[in-house]
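Long-time lurker. I teach an intro course on protein structure, and each term I like to show students one example going from raw sequence to a predicted 3D structure in token notation. This year I'd like something fresh instead of my usual example. Would anyone be willing to generate the tokens for the chain below so I can use it in lecture? Attribution to the forum is fine with me.
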Amino acid sequence: MKLTTTFWSSLGFARSALPNTIHIMKYFPFLKKYTHLFLLAAFLLPGVTVAQAESPSAPEIWKAKVISITDERNEIIFETEYLVQIMQVEVLEGPQKGNTIEIENDFQALEEGDRFYFRSSVFGDGEVVYTVTHLARGGSLLFLLGIFVLAVVTFGRWQGVRSLIALVVSFMAIIFILIPGILNGWNPLLASFLVAATILFAAIFFTHGFNKESLVAYSGTMIAVGLSGVFAIFAVSITKLSGFAADEAVSLNMDTGGAINFTALLLGAFIIGFLGVLDDIAITQSAVVTELYRSNPEISKREVYMRAMRVGREHVGALVNTLVLAYTGASLPLLLYVYLSPASFGSMIHLEIFATEVVRVIVGSVGLILTVPIVTFLAVHYLKGYKSKHGHHHGHGH
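-- Reply from a regular --
Happy to contribute to a lecture. Here you go:
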């Protein structure tokens, strides 16, 4: 089984083993002074965890509701202070549905009435250990989703409805085609490219209509996606990225028995990740060319191309900035870690988790740059004399 020995992967294993470690230390207090040895072993031998020593059965995750908090205290675990709560909870699903059980919670502070999910693990000695895994956020997420849909429909009207349909199709393609396909042995890069074609088709044609502009934008974007994919392969190859930067990748590799090519999966993630901005700039360039021809039917193709490219360059500058800031915001905890690390920035940038984000931004930006001349060239040659049914055009906001 393919495993990574990077710092971040090891940290993920150490974190996953933490509840079991604490459980053992309750019965063997003398082990507490050897916690630093455990951490060292977790970093050097990420495939070995305390969970394996205890041999728990496959954990089950169920939903529960907090009835009361019977005790709260602060404990020091690995030199970090944690709030520990003793809670009486009602199990809402599973074989213990309706029962009241006691759970020790050191995951996140909860209040009476809060709903959450917990893991039930049975250890070799028959003891059952309950661990809080995450909060139940379904209600709040649905409320926010409702606000989002209302805002899109109110502002975009019928075009907003079409964009929501395209969004639903995109998620369905990812959930029902891409994910099952990869798990069933498809090459992740090829699967991502095919799903990208489906997503772009929905995003462009459903939102902007089945017309010549959309066809030009779709064709040009798919060419750019193909070229960007080739560049992504080159970038990942020379930087030797394995695809195991995130803890989730390591866990997935274990769960699938090493059956997934994670380098190809990383490349596929790059492609899916920058489709939105490519769609944005492709539609805008097609609309710009159409408007230039409408404003002056006698204008030469060369002049249209030069003017549209000037608009495209301005748009690319804004979108590259948007892309970099979006990835920077998502990586803010990583940047804080790098800032606080005793190691120099020059050495930390070599970490795969850091290098992956840098390559992601570069590949996405190159894809943007490639899209502008390709789509503009196709639009100039195929949209001359085309009369749009729309009185005016708008690209996506950014």
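Some talking points for your students: Confidence is low (pLDDT under 50) at residues 1-55, 391-398. The radius of gyration is 26 Å.
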